[in-house]
Amino acid sequence: MSGPHLQPLMAAAAAVCLSSAAAASAGDSWFATRVVHYAPAPGQFVNQPQYNNPSRALGPPTGGGTISPDNSGVVTLGGFGGSITLGFDRPILDDPRNPMGLDIIIFGNASYVLGDPSRRFAECAIIEVSRDDNHNGLADDAWYLIPGSHLAEPFAASLFTMTWDNDTADPTHGPAQVSWLPPGTPAFPPLHTWQTTTHQLPVSMFGIAPVLVNPNGSAAETEGVWGYADHTPTLLLGDLTGNNLVDDPTLAPEDFYTVPDDPLTVGISPGSGGGDAIDIAWAVDAATGAPANLDRIDFVRITNPVHALLGPVGEWSAEIDAVAIVRPAFHPADFDRDGAVTVSDIFSFLAAWFAADLRADVDGLPGLTVGDIFAFLALWFSA
Q: The domain containing residue 17 runs over which residues?
């Protein structure tokens, strides 16, 4: 088809592209855009402005490299059970077009010990995901667990509840000092208690705390720990080889920090900005162990799963820098993923659209509508 036969379609596509520009701008961020909930547990940084601002987890990360992390953009979770819940400006699909099928990347301030990727300063955190099934924009639907490498079934057995209080003279439930109490905690006396609950990672998975040693050995090429936040360093923007040098200073954060590292291979995959990537398909119902079978998610919750004091290092606590959506490896108009944008992509897209397949939701707006057809055609004609 060519010439005048294409002109009506091209005109319609262009019109939709222009008229929906404002609406699409509300769904074009590759990073978390809002803090849904922030509840740090007692810890040494929870009252320090450098570490207790949850908005630091929004937008792109501030990578420092594999040896010296940049802490200027992180937020602390505090002690056991401290958490942050983040939202996005659009649903995140379980997208098979993504590299290795991975869908989100969580960035923290982990680093290699003396540059050795088999030994890390890493305070791993539990990842959970949720889908906004009731479409109210709140994180009040079911949560599903990413069990990772070190939570075994039955997953419910790993749940642990920590009781805290505001009496710092109490070595069992109180933090080490008053400055470790989260903002807003009532002063002692009277006694104030509260609880935090999450899935507890075994301290035995770590070597000399907080140094995490690859359980597969120092010469292994396969990573033995995966599926947790704050395990893999965040590279400098434009460091394409993991050498702590900027190879391409022209790279934008949305192009660099949306490329996942292979979580099952030691070291950071060339071209990736680091961080810890997960597949939404890994999510399970923690109560039953059954796969969650989520086609998309809307919220990510990251929680500190270890209760430990590490001497001068302070409490065990993950710091979170950012959460990114993985960018598909294929051109968005290459719907059939054959490496070329052809008319077959239009037919593949329309088949998915008529089948109510959420992969056809390309306009960034809720639900499948005719707007998705025009938006896809606009992508196809611009390819």
A: 3-25+332-382
Mean pLDDT of 47-55: 96
Q: From the CB of residue 120, how many other CB atoms can be counted at a distance below 10 Å?
A: 25
Of residues 66 and 7, the one with the higher pLDDT is 66
In terms of domains, do 59 and 160 share one? yes
From CA 164, how far away is CA 160, in angstroms rounded? 13
Which of 277, 295, 325 is a domain's end point? Answer: 325
- Does the pLDDT of residue 258 top 90, yes or no? yes
The answer to whether the beta carbons of residues 108 and 74 sit under 8 Å apart is yes
- Decide if pLDDT at 204 tops 50: yes
Task: Kindly state the tokens that stand for 330.
Answer: 């294929």
Number of folded domains that form the chain:
2
Distance CA 373, CA 351 (A): 11
Indicate whether 372 and 233 sit together in one domain.
no
DSSP helix/strand/coil, 360: helix
Q: What is the 3-state secondary structure (H, E, C) of 73-111?
A: HCEECCCCCCEEEEEEEEEEECCCCCHHHCCEEEEECCE
CA distance 261 to 240: 12
Statement to judge: residues 112 and 168 lie in one domain? yes
H/E stretch holding 38 reads: strand 34-39
